[in-house]
Specification:
The complex is a heterodimer. Chain A is mostly beta strands. In chain A, 0% of the residues lie in helices and 50% in strands. Chain A has strands at 5-7, 10-13, 19-24, 31-37, 43-50, 53-57, 65-68, 75-79, 88-95, 103-104, 108-112. In chain A, the strands form 2 sheets. In chain A, strands 2, 4, 5, 6, 9, 10 and 11 form a 7-stranded mixed sheet that branches. In chain A, strands 1-3-8-7 form a 4-stranded antiparallel sheet, with no helix packed on it. Chain A is globular. In chain B, 0% of the residues lie in helices and 48% in strands. Chain B has no helices and 12 strands. In chain B, the strands form 3 sheets. In chain B, strands 2, 5, 6, 10, 11 and 12 form a 6-stranded mixed sheet that branches. In chain B, strands 3-9-8-7 form a 4-stranded antiparallel sheet, with no helix packed on it. Chain B is globular and about 45 Å long. Classes of the chains: A mainly beta, B mainly beta. At the A-B interface, strand 4, strand 5 and strand 10 of A face strand 5, strand 6, strand 10 and strand 11 of B.
Chain lengths: 113, 113
């Protein structure tokens, strides 16, 4: 089936540094999402992105977070600067249209030290 | 706003017993889409079931669910649990006119011999 790729699978950084999480969504998909899952907890919505714009974001999407997809390449989540509480698994997802199935990547585990 | 409620955080079962995971929702949309996603350890969350029309049952891989608009529910069921069903199950909601996909808090299903 369709695959969403996330690079890297694990990232370790020092608090205060910048980090960029990369997502290669399914090629014909138009809607893109980031979700955050802290160890042992549920997956929580961060942001969704369509047509080059953030459509909706949650309270978890702090000012230090940003997303973009320049020229149809990777859909990225940037955190600058990082904080200890940003340690989590971040899942990228995409879909073709509203109401359709979300396809998830395998997640990037971010460890902020 | 839209919300999804999964009342059980953890369900433990013996192999062979029936499975029922609860999901209720609130939404302004008269025709919402409801989904069940399954998340196995160290894998990507993936679609298990998507709702059809009101009161119509949908089935996949031995699991089934029926959207009941009258009770705003989309419970997941299976007649006989297998060890391989052990995973985290998310109920999710989307509307035809929204980009957002709202997830419930998830139910961890643990099946033992």
């Amino acid at each position: 089936g369709p695959k969403v790729l996330q690079i890297p699978s694990h990232q370790i950084i020092d608090m205060g540094q910048m980090v960029t999480l990369n997502c290669d969504p399914v090629s014909n998909h138009l809607y893109f999402y980031w979700y955050k899952q802290i160890l042992g907890q549920q997956m929580e919505f961060l942001v969704n992105f369509y047509n080059g714009k953030v459509m909706e974001k949650s309270k978890l999407f702090k000012d230090q977070f940003s997303v973009e997809r320049p020229d149809g390449s990777y859909f990225t989540l940037k955190i600058q600067p990082t904080a200890l509480e940003d340690s989590a698994v971040y899942f990228c997802a995409s879909r073709t249209d509203r109401g359709n199935t979300l396809y998830f990547g395998a997640g990037t585990r971010l460890s902020v030290l | 706003g839209d919300s999804v409620t999964q009342t059980e955080g953890l369900v433990t079962l013996t192999e062979g017993l029936p499975v029922m995971l609860n999901c209720t929702y609130q939404t302004i949309y008269s025709n919402p889409f409801l989904f069940w996603y399954v998340h196995y350890l160290n894998e990507s969350p993936r679609l298990l079931l998507k709702s059809s029309t009101d009161n119509k049952r949908t089935e996949h891989q031995g699991f089934h669910a029926t959207l009941h608009k009258s009770s705003s529910s989309f419970h997941l069921q299976k007649s006989s649990a297998q060890l391989s069903d052990s995973a985290l199950y998310y109920c999710a909601l989307s509307g035809p006119n929204t980009d957002k996909v709202v997830f419930g808090t998830g139910t961890r299903l643990q099946v033992s011999p």
